[in-house]
Amino acid sequence: MSELIHIFSYSFMLRALIVGVLVALCAALLGTSLVLKRYSMIGDGLSHVGYGAFAIAAAANLTPLYVAIPTVIIAAFFLLRLSRSSKINGDSAIAILSSSALAIGMIVLSVTKVSIDVNSYMFGSILALTDNDVIISAICSVIVCVMYLVFYHRIFAVTFDESFSSATGIRSGIYNTLIAVLTAIIIVVGMRLMGALLISSLMISPSLTSMRLCKSFRGVTICSVAVSVFCFTAGLILSYYIDIPTGAGIVVLNLICFLISALIGKITKRNE
Amino acid sequence: MKYEGVSAFEGVSFDLDEGDFLCIVGENGSGKSTLIKGLLGLKQYSSGSIVFNGVKQREIGYLPQQTPAQKDFPATVKEVVISGCLNRNGLTPFYSKNSKKRASEMMSLMKIEDLSDKSYRGLSGGQQQRVLLARALCATEKLLLLDEPVSGLDPMVTAEMYEAIRSLNREKGVTVIMVSHDIHNALHCGNKMLHMAQGRYFFGTKEEYKKIPEFKAMAGGCLSDE
């Protein structure tokens, strides 16, 4: 225990813990809806769009977040709209958007000779956060949590059955947009702080893990928040001791949790 | 109470009274599902009108065809059923006591109260349909729209399902509009029929329907002696 207190007496570790737990919590909340709506790749796709936006912001010398958040919100909105029209599927829309955004980002960077470290884009720099980062992520997380709690039942209804919800007078479009906007905010904040790979893993893995274990929607929601926060904290502490990249360590811990839960799910399936 | 519909696929017109049971039969692609979506306000129509007297748009209970995403959806029966009460919730974020009571009443009406804490994805097809029907009843007791309620169910369960729907109509006075491919059961349950085919439509009581050539074609060689 005193060992743990010692670790978090370093202010960079404490900042990483606060930001990470907040973002992990929000990502897990939203992830459940996204997985169930078959949008597992949206986190990945949007973070590539975020990369493109960061590149343009760097080239034009603008504040990265002010460019990235609106761009990613528009992309998220566009993706969720597009996949409802039958001509292009959701997964192909995500694929084309994410590779194009990445390509545009690369071109902008090479033309303007600005460089962004690709490694920090993939896995972020969670150990190099500023106080300002902590404040931004805290504000965003509180917004996401409050919105999610207030609209929890509606989000459930729209996730489970969109046409029934619309038919009985719930305006599904608004809640789909809400999910898109909240997802976009968390992805932009998360990818800047923790990297593109880590944020899409934080969104999807905990939900998949808890879907194997829980049978109710509320159970899955609570369980995935717990798994997400646990994996993040454990990964952070582990990376301190055995000197592995923090982000990659957290992703692998999530994978291990998923494999264990898949095994437990197989064993207990007959009792369901 | 009267519903009148004239829809965009030209010339379909029908009106129903409270307590009626309308069966919509017809070929694939004749616009049955479009009609349902039009009635629910899910699709815009370019011409014609749908008039509900005494029923608001949000007072329609709908039993949609199941989507693939629902097959592994982690939710308990209780959670699914109570989500039908959302439309009477207004803007409050949580369910009232009334909603909870209503949800449990509807579960016992559909005889699924002992499944209440079970997981939706673990249920059989027939049980799942009952859950969705209970959810639709939470939304309303005035008008139910059923889109092929028995597709994919085995014969025993199909019969039970029809029986459940019939008793809702007869005993609770719920007005029902049902899309079905099953002409015999449609005639057994319904009192009014809407036959839809490319360019030709028929609406009338089931006695009138039995006399027209479309019926003989639908019923084929196994014309029943009902």
Fill in the keyword field for this structure.
heterodimer, A: 272 residues, mainly alpha, ABC transporter involved in vitamin B12 uptake, BtuC, 13 helices, globular, B: 226 residues, alpha/beta, six-stranded mixed β-sheet, three-stranded antiparallel β-sheet, 8 helices, 9 strands, disordered C terminus
The CATH topology of chain A turns out to be: ABC transporter involved in vitamin B12 uptake, BtuC
Q: What's the CATH H-level superfamily name of chain A?
A: ABC transporter involved in vitamin B12 uptake, BtuC
Mean pLDDT of chain B: 76
Assembly form of the protein: heterodimer
Counting H and I runs of at least 4 residues, what is the number of helices of chain A? 13
Shape of chain B: globular
Distance between the termini of chain B: 30 Å
Question: Can you tell me the number of structural domains of chain A?
Answer: 1
The value of Rg of chain A in angstroms is: 19 Å
Number of helices of chain B: 8
Side-by-side strand order of the widest sheet of chain B:
5-6-7-3-8-9
Could you say which overall geometry of chain A the principal axes of the C-alpha atoms support?
globular
Strand content of chain A: under 5%
In sequence order, what are the helices and strands of chain A, one letter per element? HHHHHHHHHHHHH
The helix-strand sequence of chain B is EEEHEEHHHEHEHEEHH
* Main sheet characteristics of chain B: 6 strands, mixed
Please give the largest β-sheet of chain A: none
In whole angstroms, how far apart are the ends of chain A? 39 Å
Question: What's the CATH class label of chain A?
Answer: Mainly Alpha
- Tell me what portion of residues of chain B adopts beta-strand conformation: 15-25%
Low-confidence stretches of chain B: 221-226
